[in-house]
Amino acid sequence: MLDELIREIKAFIIETLDLEDISPDDIDADALLFGDGLGLDSIDSLELGVGLQKRYGLKISAEDEEARRIFSSVRTLATYVAAHQTV
Q1: Which helix (DSSP H) or strand (DSSP E) does residue 7 occupy?
Q2: pLDDT digit string (tens) for 41-79?
Q3: How far is Cα 44 from Cα 34, in angstroms, rounded to an integer?
Q4: What domains does the chain contain, in order, with CATH numbers?
Q5: Per-residue pLDDT tens over the stretch 26-44
Q6: Other C-beta atoms lying within 10 Å of the C-beta of residue 4
Q7: Other beta carbons less than 10 A from residue 30's beta carbon
Q8: If 0-12 CB within 10 Å is exposed, 13-18 middle and 19+ buried, where does residue 18 land?
Q9: pTM (two decimals)
């Protein structure tokens, strides 16, 4: 179940951020999403947050102390979605 969601989250990131020339297989589920990992920035995090709310019914506030941990990798994001999904 989590493996399916990880693949779905990878595709969601690519689609939401309009990443070109990258496939879900190119994204390491445990690599950092920001900085030296996938290289996302704060604007990307806002877009992902809006996308998560639309697709999964989740709202993660930037002020949430957990947000940094939740968005650290595809795996941590998928784990959070699995535990809190309402849609």
Answers
A1: helix 2-16
A2: 989 989 999 999 999 999 887 777 888 899 999 999 999
A3: 9
A4: 2-84 (1.10.1200.10)
A5: 999 999 999 888 999 989 9
A6: 10
A7: 12
A8: exposed
A9: 0.89
> Which residue carries 């989250």 as its tokens?
9
Distances (CA, A) of 83 to 1, 25, 40, 58, 87: 12, 24, 24, 11, 12
All residues at 6 or more sequence positions from 60 whose CB lies less than 8 Å from its CB, including other chains: 49, 52, 66, 67, 70, 71, 80
Token pair of 19 as six digits: 């990443």
Q: Which helix (H) or strand (E) holds 18?
A: none
DSSP 20-81: -S--GGGS-TTSBSBTTSS-B-HHHHHHHHHHHHHHH-----TT-TTHHHHTSBHHHHHHHH
